[in-house]
Write a structure and sequence with these properties.
This protein is an alpha/beta fold and 292 residues long. The protein has helices spanning 16-23, 47-60, 76-84, 114-130, 138-154, 184-190, 200-207, 224-229; strands spanning 2-6, 10-11, 34-38, 44-45, 65-69, 103-110, 159-167, 172-179, 237-251, 254-275. The protein has a 5-stranded antiparallel beta sheet, sandwiched between helices. A 3-stranded parallel beta sheet has the order 1-3-5, with no helix packed on it.
């Protein structure tokens, strides 16, 4: 059997669960033995779309045949998909990529690789985009580190995919990290510490309460996800979380909105939107002192 999927002309975080459900079911099984993907109508995709498609290809690559239909037209949205690196691991031939300095390279990162990646790739990109070459970006580092800790401790997978885009005209960085693990609500239900009748969004809300954890060991007291919320203080950023059927948005240090969708995202998805014009983002940069 064959399924034909036409990528929409625009993909944002609001579309990831809907699009994922065209490829896989709730148990992450492919919808068909062959999936044909038409990329000719896409006009714009945010990092959310790049990470979703990359994770889907990675999940399905050894299970089914994926066919990319490209009619050769000069489409800027399609060009961006190639430049992002989505297809590099899955197609035998890809068009020559343009090097975009605004892109944080798409990568599947093992939970043990995080610190090396941060020091060699993420920090360089943050400094280059902001022209803050002395800054350590502690708030961003802590947030992404906690997301990887969440993947390691609760998702039942050992890696997550990350990708970023700098939008100079908006003074905005967008970073997306996502996995196809079991998801935050499922992890909390499996721990048997929470009411299994709670909705997925209610369980994600629980996960962001101080002291809440699925871990039984004293070493993990549930400080991780609340730490993520702190990056949004002083309107530095907004963070959207999608996991199973639940979704939640953090803004200005608090829960801005939450709810449930009829569409299931089989894993956990984080989108971080950072205002680099907000001075509260930056660590203090002490001037060097010299003795003459």
């Amino acid at each position: 059997m064959t399924t034909d999927i036409i990528l929409p002309n625009r993909i944002t975080a609001d579309d990831v669960a809907v699009l994922a459900n065209k490829f896989i079911d709730i148990n992450k099984r492919p919808k068909d033995e062959i999936i044909n993907i038409d990329i000719n109508y896409i006009y714009f995709t945010e990092p959310a779309g790049v990470v979703l498609l990359f994770n889907l290809f990675k999940l399905l690559d050894d299970q089914i045949e994926i066919v990319i239909f490209d009619n050769g037209s000069n489409n800027l949205g399609k060009r961006y998909l190639y430049d992002s690196g989505i297809f590099d691991e899955f197609l035998s031939e890809v068009p020559r990529k343009n090097r975009r300095g605004t892109i944080l390279t798409l990568k599947d990162i093992g939970t043990e690789e995080y610190y090396q990646w941060h020091n060699s790739t993420l920090l360089h990109w943050l400094r280059s985009c902001t022209n803050r070459y002395k800054n350590d970006f502690t708030a961003i580092k802590t947030t992404i580190e906690e997301i990887f800790n969440n993947i390691k401790d609760h998702s039942k997978v050992n890696s997550g995919s990350v990708y970023g885009q700098y939008y100079p005209k908006n003074d905005e960085l967008v970073i997306v990290l996502a996995d196809f693990g079991i998801g935050i609500p499922t992890a909390l239900r499996n721990s048997e510490k929470f009411d299994s009748d709670l909705s997925d969004s209610a369980l994600i809300l629980k996960a962001f309460e101080e002291g809440v954890s699925t871990e039984s060991t004293p070493g993990n007291r549930g400080a991780g996800l609340p730490n993520i919320k702190r990056l949004t203080n002083n309107r530095v950023s907004t963070i959207q979380v999608i996991s199973n059927c639940g979704r939640l948005r953090l803004a200005n240090g608090k829960i801005d909105s939450f709810g449930d969708s009829i569409y299931n995202y089989s894993g956990t998805f984080f989108e971080i939107r950072i205002d680099i014009s907000n001075l509260s983002l930056y660590d203090d940069e002490a001037e060097e002192e010299f003795e003459w």
